[in-house]
Amino acid sequence: MTDKKINEQLLPSTHYDDDFLQLEKEINIFSKKGKIVLLGDFNSRTGDRLDYIKDDSLDINNFAQTNLLPDEYKIDNCFNRYSCDKVVNGQGVNLLDLSTSSSLRISNGRYIGDIMGNFTCMTSNGSSVVDYAIVSESLLSSVEYFKTHEFNYLSDHVKIEIFLKCMQREYNFDIFENSNWSSYKSFKWDSQKSKLKLLDHLSDETVLNNILNFEMQTFSNDQRGVDDETNKLTTILCNLAENSCVIKRKKL
């Protein structure tokens, strides 16, 4: 089984080309560990332009005594996609370049559920396609379908979904019998007592300082920073839960 890594990046405006450079760096890192799935709002209008190299081949090697392309080079071979949005903006060009260079493919307009490449955003300025599910080329055969939902009053963007075929691992839980992981804690909210306990705990000066220090702390923009921030936030949330909820221990 090959692991699938999910990366999240917010691209806020047409002036943030550095975001694509950062995203490309992260893709390069995670692609060595597994497959890539990018999902969300990219503020990129790509029209129906190709996200792969058309008529790609190894024929160029026949015109030279040595191979011009590396041995591991894989020929782009992808089926066309469709889009109701025919506009291409600067962010869209960047996204297409990123997809081509990183062997990623846009799912919109290619699968059952969104075969026409439906609009994903509707504002007073018009409709557009800016929300995408983008996957490693090798994952295209694993996509069951991609779906764009209907617009509703809660957002000017539609909900998008992608369904992938995945192999499931079977775990041997015997390894947990003589370890600290033989059981785990769960927290249950008591509708009558938990709220008051939580408010009382939040009034503690030490607890407030821990939360404020966390909010004001700056974490490094790398894997270590993400792990550090996640661990500290988890500690804060677990502390609040332990002092306000009913604690249950369950065996694996």
Helix content: 25-40%
The oligomeric state of the chains shown is: single chain
Radius of gyration of CA atoms, rounded to a whole number: 24 Å
Top CATH class of the largest domain: Alpha Beta
H and E order: EHEHEEEEEEEHHHE
Under CATH, the homologous superfamily of the largest domain reads Endonuclease/exonuclease/phosphatase
Could you name the CATH topology of the largest domain? Deoxyribonuclease I, Chain A
Backbone structural class? alpha+beta
Shape: elongated
- What is the level-2 CATH architecture name of the largest domain? 4-Layer Sandwich
Mean pLDDT: 83
Strand order of the largest sheet: 1-2-6-3
Detail the poorly predicted runs: none
Question: What is the number of E strands?
Answer: 10
Distance from N terminus to C terminus (CA atoms, Å) equals 24 Å
How many domains? The number is: 2
Number of helices: 5
